[in-house]
């Protein structure tokens, strides 16, 4: 996956029932933020930041989706606990995570394991990847993504 390439298609279950797919957002900008685990400190700050800016993203013509490997039930608990307004997608099989390069080798305390790499992808209204952020640092990130969405 690279900037300028067509965004990989997806269709996965989301919080509140139903599903979300790339086709649902055809002709619109779309921000996908991949986070390691619902209701952990960094992921909570990131989701709250995207929620805080959700109307600004809408004004920029961009939708925002959060994705992790958590179950739909865990996503709903996370959403309710923190009053999140961005849709949360569940990718328990890691298909979308792998397609978008957000699943890979990580290390912590000298131990190596497979997991979600905090990644954000901005898809243009043309369905192509406009920008990719890998190994995201949470503080100020949502604002940076909003600026990029406004610029395309």
TrEMBL record:
Question: Organism, per UniProt?
Answer: Bradyrhizobium jicamae
Query: What is the protein name stated in its UniProt record?
Result: thioredoxin-dependent peroxiredoxin
One Pfam entry for this protein is AhpC-TSA
Does the record's keyword annotation contain Mitochondrion? no
This protein's UniProt keywords? Antioxidant, Disulfide bond, Oxidoreductase, Peroxidase, Redox-active center
Reactions it catalyzes: a hydroperoxide + [thioredoxin]-dithiol = an alcohol + [thioredoxin]-disulfide + H2O
Family the entry assigns: Belongs to the peroxiredoxin family. BCP/PrxQ subfamily.
Q: Which GO terms describe its cellular component?
A: cytoplasm
Function, as annotated: Thiol-specific peroxidase that catalyzes the reduction of hydrogen peroxide and organic hydroperoxides to water and alcohols, respectively. Plays a role in cell protection against oxidative stress by detoxifying peroxides and as sensor of hydrogen peroxide-mediated signaling events.
Q: Describe the location of the Thioredoxin domain by residue ranges.
A: 1-152
Q: How does it assemble?
A: Monomer.
One GO molecular function term of this record is: thioredoxin peroxidase activity
Question: Which leading EC class covers this enzyme?
Answer: oxidoreductase
Biological process (GO) annotations? Answer: cell redox homeostasis; cellular response to oxidative stress
InterPro entries noted in UniProt = AhpC/TSA (IPR000866), Peroxiredoxin_BCP/PrxQ (IPR050924), Thioredoxin-like_sf (IPR036249), Thioredoxin_domain (IPR013766)
Could you say which EC number(s) this protein's record lists? 1.11.1.24
């Amino acid at each position: 996956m690279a900037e300028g390439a067509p965004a990989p298609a997806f269709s996965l279950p989301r919080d509140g029932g139903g599903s979300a797919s790339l086709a649902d957002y055809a002709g619109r900008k779309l921000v996908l933020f991949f986070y390691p685990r619902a209701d952990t400190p960094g992921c909570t700050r990131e989701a709250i930041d995207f929620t805080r800016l959700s109307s600004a993203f809408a004004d920029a013509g961009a939708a925002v989706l959060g994705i992790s490997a958590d179950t739909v039930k865990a996503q709903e608990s996370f959403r309710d606990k923190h009053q999140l307004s961005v849709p949360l997608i569940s990718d328990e099989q890691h298909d979308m995570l792998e397609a978008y390069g957000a699943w890979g080798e990580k290390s912590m305390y000298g131990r190596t394991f497979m997991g979600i790499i905090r990644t954000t992808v901005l898809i243009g209204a043309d369905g192509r990847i406009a920008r990719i952020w890998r190994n995201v640092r949470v503080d100020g990130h949502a604002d940076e993504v909003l600026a990029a969405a406004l610029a395309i």
